[in-house]
Design brief:
The chain is an alpha/beta fold. It has four domains: 113 residues, Nucleotidyltransferase, domain 5 (2-Layer Sandwich); 99 residues; 98 residues, no CATH class; 49 residues, no CATH class. The protein has 18 helices and seven strands. Strands 3-2-1-4-5 form a five-stranded mixed β-sheet. A two-stranded antiparallel sheet has the order 6-7. The longest helix is centred in the middle third of the chain and has 38 residues. The protein is globular, with a radius of gyration of 28 Å.
């Protein structure tokens, strides 16, 4: 949305940092009016808003870093009813040409609003708790993987008797045994020290695993509450849903078209044609976490969705590479996700399945054996935790005929 200020209105720009924000005000024609620096505290934000209001009507404020250093002043301006526009950081070529200071960056942010270069509304800060959980889960998952690699490395260099004891042990069983071990009862000093280190790593692994389970449960509850349509999509779990919600923000109206959302996720093909050569290349931009989420959804559907497998086989037979099939499927999933984010996605209702099965006095095992799936699969469909419209319809017809 391009801001066209009235002649008597002003436009402001803000360059945000950890401890300070620099605000600059210009006229509707781009003339410099005034600039000032404030601290990034509650008092500082209140003074900044009051200082802006003193300069007369403010059409809009362009801010660098609305989801990082500028999140506090963004919330304060919104609370005061002032329009906020997200501004990208200064380009390296522009820095080399004009230099870079907080003052210059603030004026540049204001001019970006007038020129229309900056026209996107920032994300609402209500999405930040979800982002915080995602960041915490990501770090815990990395620590868990590092812990497991350290356990395996120590076992490789452990004494032969200790290594042989756990050589054929599965991962979960190995963690339990190491965590419950008693190094003090080992007479060999070197082996006792190695065992003590392994026990410490195993207990850390258990702690991190429990933390991940707790975080995913919170993500499951939050994402289902925020967007049940997105969670109802086949292949979308709590983590992938959280990543996509953070990418879109808590105000998906800022996403204008499915093509724009695909570009945001790095799944839109980029034309690189020249002369007689007409072709496209893969986009390497966009939010890579969102791109990863779309990739995970496609991977799940490759295994559990017959339509996706049929599409893959058809295009592989036509000479496509598997990478090209994945790119096309990710683009299709991006369109489906966009509909869910903007509220145009149908949510399947499976609440009638469990009461119907219980009324016929049938067990989950009977239903699972009939459809050749695991009982947990049927249970997840009944509870609405898994979307499989074809199986749900066949299951409903089977219950009616039973």
């Amino acid at each position: 949305m391009t801001i066209i200020p009235e002649p008597h209105h002003h436009v402001a720009g803000i360059d945000s940092h950890t401890e300070t924000i620099h605000i600059a005000v210009i006229t509707a024609t781009g003339l410099e009016v005034d600039d000032h620096e404030f601290t990034t505290t509650t008092t500082g934000y209140r003074k900044a808003v009051a200082w802006l209001v003193e300069h007369g009507p403010i059409a809009a404020v362009g801010i660098e870093g609305t989801s990082s250093y500028g999140i506090g002043i963004t919330a304060a301006l919104r609370a005061a009813g002032i329009t906020v526009i997200e501004v990208n950081r200064t380009r390296p070529a522009e820095r080399r040409k004009h230099g870079k200071t907080d003052r210059l960056d603030a004026y540049r942010a204001a001019r970006c609003v007038i020129s229309g270069e900056a026209a996107t509304h920032p994300k609402h800060d209500s999405i930040e708790p979800l982002r915080a959980l995602l960041v915490t889960r990501r770090s815990a998952n990395k620590a868990l993987q590092a812990c497991w690699r350290q356990i395996r490395s120590l076992l490789v260099n452990a004494p032969a008797t200790l290594r042989d004891k756990y050589r054929q042990t599965s991962r979960d069983k190995l963690i339990r045994h190491l965590a419950a071990s008693r190094p003090d009862q080992i007479h060999d000093a070197a082996q006792a020290l190695t065992m003590r280190a392994l026990r410490s790593l195993a207990r850390r692994h258990q702690f991190l695993h429990d933390e991940l389970v707790d975080l995913e449960a919170q993500l499951d509850e939050l994402t289902t509450t925020k967007n049940p349509g997105l969670r109802a999509m086949h292949g979308v779990g709590p983590v992938t849903a959280a990543v996509l919600l953070v990418t879109a923000g808590d105000n998906p109206a800022r996403l204008a078209t499915p093509a724009g959302f695909a570009a945001l996720c790095g799944t839109s093909p980029i034309p690189v044609s020249s002369g007689k050569t007409q072709r496209h290349r893969l986009s390497r931009g966009g939010d890579r976490q969102a791109n990863w989420a779309l990739h995970q959804i496609v991977k799940v559907r490759m295994v559990h969705d017959q339509r996706t497998r049929d599409y893959r086989d058809k295009h592989l037979d036509a000479g496509w590479t598997l990478a090209a099939v994945y790119r096309a499927l990710k683009r299709a999933v991006a369109r489906e996700v966009f509909r869910a984010l903007t509220g145009n996605c149908e949510i399947p209702n499976y609440t009638d399945l469990r009461p119907a099965r219980q009324a016929k006095k049938l067990t989950l095992t009977h239903a699972a054996q009939h459809f050749n799936v695991w009982p947990a699969h049927i249970s997840e469909i009944e509870l609405g935790k898994r979307r499989d419209d074809t199986l749900a319809q066949n299951y409903r017809e089977w219950l009616q005929a039973a």
